[in-house]
Specification:
alpha/beta; six-stranded parallel β-sheet; TIM Barrel; three-stranded parallel β-sheet; 11 strands
Length: about 350
Amino acid sequence: MKIIIAASLSFFALSACAQSHMGMDFEKYNPVSTLVVPEHKLNRSKFPFIDVHNHQWEMGTGRIKELITDMDNLNMAVMVNLSGGNGDKLKGIADNIKSTSPKRFIVFANIDFSGIGGDNWTENAVRRLEEDVRNGANGLKIFKNLGFSVTDTKGNRVKVDDPRLDPIWKKCGELKIPVLIHTADPKSFWNDLDENNERWMELATHPNRKRGSKDASFEELIGEQHRMFKKHPETIFIAAHFGWLPNDLARLGQLLDEMPNVVVEFGAVIAEIGRQPRNASAFFTKYQDRILFGKDAWVPEEYATYFRVLETSDEYFPYHKKYHAFWRMYGLGLPDDILKKIYYKNALRIIPNIDKSQFPD
């Protein structure tokens, strides 16, 4: 009887303790690891690098000088601004780059899809692209609205592989400029928002990212993208965010095997790479000539996670945004010859007009 009473008291004591901490939730719970392992926190890359995925919407102004200080601290030699727009806006950005720091920045043009389906829309879009390249664009960036929200003059969704866009992709091949394209979102964004969805916290805190029945499905979107890749083998495509297949590297590898005109960049998906170090290391080794460095959001202190995953063999370290990845990272410890390709050599081969004098052999 005494044992039973003691056990009951212990149970109630634990319950009371639990009740006193009911304010603790998953977002707040962030225990400090007791694991004692080597740490190599990096704030600067080992080699100068080219960030092929950045967004600077106001680069037509003097903001360039402010950026260079942060770039120098990171060892970023060249930033590729994917948000160049087109027409006068792009020309203003390109002119500002040329007059301030021509070696440090590259700008990509964007397509204005409004009015697609109207008379001569395709021809006009191609002519505008040619003009943008003459004015300083060195590539074309396609945002994810293509496939999701772009509609034609009849109100129909414009698919990624819409034949009305074929002359644009063909012209990019002729002009020898790459197309960096973001299609779809992480597949989990379409899944039910329940306890089985590992993106639950991100979707709960950013509900506008949830995809549903009104959107084209994940498989529809990447299927359209892959058909477009195959239709234009003479054009170089950079699949943004590892083509949203960073959590299925075998499938991504199959894509690269089938389409030699496709390369990838890992903007915003380093958390997926860092949680599978052995699998990712094998992927980076096999496809070392097909991977570019990309970050996406311009938050200078977050580059440290990218450097640490790529360069070190550290274990069990945190990602910089818990809502985006609650799991821990592991370093790939890539050798120097592969690091150089990821950081700058592959981009120098693919993106025209980058000054090569800033980089080692």
